[in-house]
Amino acid sequence: MRSSLRIAFLASVFALPASAQAPQVFHRIATIEAQRMLPADRDRARRSIAEIVAATPDGNTLVYVDGDQRGIGFVDITDPAAPRPAGFVPLEGDPTSVTVRGGQAFAVADTSPDKANPSGIVAVVDIAARRVTQSCALGGQPDSTAMSRDGRFLAVVIENERNEQLNRGAIPQLPPGNLTIIPTTPQGLDCNALRRVDLTGLAEVAPTDPEPEFVDINGRGEAVVTLQENNHIAIVDLASGRVTAHFPAGRVTLAQVDGRRDGVIRPTQTLENLVREPDAVRWLDDDRFVTANEGDMVTGSRGFTIFRRDGAVEWDSGNLLEHLAIRIGHYPEARSGARGNEPEGIEVGTFNGQRLIFVGSERASVVSVWRDEGPGRAPSFLQVLPAGAGPEGLLAVPARGLFVAAAEADSPETGLRSALSLYRLGDGPARYPTIESMHGPDGAPIPWGALSGLAADRSAPGRLFAVTDSYYAEAQILTVDATQTPARITASSTVTRDGQPARNLDIEGVATRAGGGFWLASEGNPEREQNRTQNLLLRVSASGAIEQEIALPEALAVPATRFGLEGVTVTGEGAEETVWIAVQREWRDDPRGHAKLLRYRVATGEWGVLHYPLGTTPAGWMGLSEITAVAPDRFIVIERNNQWGGAAIKRLYEVSVAGLTPAAPGAAQVPVVAKRLLRDVVPDLAATGGIVLEKLEGFTVDAAGDAFAVTDNDGVQGTSGETQFLRLGRLTR
Question: What is the pLDDT of residue 1?
Answer without folding.
Answer: 42
